[in-house]
Prior knowledge:
- The protein folds into 3 domains: 2-65; 196-322 and 347-519, Alkaline Phosphatase, subunit A (3-Layer(aba) Sandwich); 526-657.
- Strand 7 and strand 8 (175-182) form a beta hairpin.
- The radius of gyration is 32 Å and the shape is globular.
- It is 31% helix and 19% strand.
- The chain is an alpha+beta fold.
- The protein is built from 19 helices and 24 strands.
- The longest helix has 40 residues, at 26-65.
- The structure holds zinc ion.
- Residues 211-212, 247-248, 416-417 line the site of zinc ion.
- This is DUF229 domain-containing protein.
- It holds the Pfam family DUF229.
Amino acid sequence: MKSKFRKSHSSYQEICCSREGTYVTISKRWKCFRIKHTRPCLLLCLTVVFFTIFMISTVIVTDETQYLLLSNHNATCKLPVTDPFDPNIMKYIFEPDPIVCSQFPPLMYVDTSGILRINQSTLIHYGLDLSCMYQSIERLNDSDIRFGPEVKLEPPVFLPNFYFRVICRNEKSKIVYDNLHFNFWWNIKNETKSFGVETEEDLSIFVFGLDSLSRSQTIRKLPKTFEYMTKKLNIYDFKGFLKVGLNTFPNLIPLLSGKHVEELPADHESKFFDNMSLIWNQKSMSQYATLYAEDKIEYSTFNMNKQGFLHFPTTYYFRPILLAMEKMKPVFVELFDKERNFCFGHTKRFQLQIDFYKTFLQRHEKKLRFAFSWLNQLSHDNINMLGNGDDSIREFLMWMKDSGHLERAILIFLGDHGFRMGDVATTFVGRIENNMPFLGIYIPTFVKEKYPGLHRNLVDNTRRLVSAFDIFETMQDIMHRRYKQNDANTVYRHSRGISLLRPVHAARSCDDAGVPEVFCACYQTTSLNTTLNVVQIIAQFALDSINKLLKPKSQICAELSIRSIREASIIPSTLEKANGVYDLIGNLFRTKSGISGRYIILIETYPGEGLFEVMIDYENDQKMVLVGEISRLNRYGKQSHCVKDSSLFQFCYCLDLV
Length: 658
Ligand SMILES: [Zn+2]
């Protein structure tokens, strides 16, 4: 450079100065002008170009996100690794009291050809001189059933009803048996529909889900089931399965329809779900016998603040049994009322649903079957109660395997999110767990051997960021026999849903996978002192945001105040940016109160002692924006009984309680 400069400098001297005061031609003057001004002009041009790029990049970032931190969401996911036995969690973990149901086993059972029989070994409890009746159970709608008239019953007998109630009285006319039974063979004589048969290409799909089941919670509370799944069934254990919505409904809708909950019709809460594009309504599902079962009337995915179904959604439907259970008190020798919440007479409620599932599998053995079972009660309300289900769930999986039901079927065992409420959810580790539900997938051995590429993809994908949209696509691949196409040359990244049988790109981001920023567990945070000025300002903004939501209901809901700021953290601006230029620019924006960035804050409000986690983008004291949804981390119970709008349940503290 130096020599070049000297050269140009000397040529300037030579051309322009050597004949100072003498006449110079126009062409020489022009040459002289060029030499004299090229360097400064170049410098000026470079400055202008750099400034323009700076401005454009700032404008682009500002336009797209309002603030500077945009790329955590678009960055390659760095999956967090949490310890299921983290001391902060373990202080809330203990052995639950066992669930104790009636000691008297049922008097009757339906055998595998649909005949109702007396269990002879139990007669000793009920007496020999019994007079029994049965009542059919008629589903009226998703909220009610009707018991038919009492009809005399003399087992063994085939009853042409799907669900029915059996009542037996002893010689003193005292009711000694009052129980519900179901008969999956009820229409076998007039069966008009024939289902497809499982083949090496046409596989059944069994989904078994538990609410609030994180991967860590599975390891903690279902250790026997987890061991059986990983060691005997050799399931693929997905360590990067992230939730895509706050609670059950927005996580199960993507799983069952491939859609985000916001893509449903705006009035979906006021309409029946019969015509919605749920997987069991798809044309290719017409070959399958289908089952849908959920175990809590009030929490059911399609019924909580929603209309449910007008008709049977699937070939077999569990809900009418639940409704019947609510209308009667079971009698097993004595009226059984103890632990009524978790038992129905002799049987644990979750076991009833498992038995329903098992009978369905038996009824259509070797036929194409799709089953979707969701258990809420055992895992939703109490983080420890799930331990009471470990033996039963493991036994169910063992039974599936040993009875041959998994020979030509895939099994998807999963949760929708982690534990969302209570003490655990307020810990740092608990909040990560909340975003990371369990997902295990079983594939028959012959499929793995026949398609080794598919096995490789699944193994790789257990370490990728995946979501419920991918499970939907996986089921589509199975239903449409596309699972054979495991083209290793195509690595999928930007599709929202990618079948897990195909290669998922290692650099997939939350944004790619349809995981909203607020639930993206892919970045680290740095804790902040809650007394910092910026934290106080952000906390006030969070509170104002909540009160703004409550404003239209200010006649009935209390205005909230901050009792305390429990925790605050920042997602460091240097983290996982897609483009380093943004970091450079971001670091220029410091304000009096603090540094611009994305903050997560945990505040406690009153009245109502609500604990809220809020994510906020902060640029300066006047420029802040809420990111995603606000999550309440403790229960609100009946605090919001006065409002009907479900979006306000977690915020409203009814004024009549103040
Ligand atoms: Zn849930």
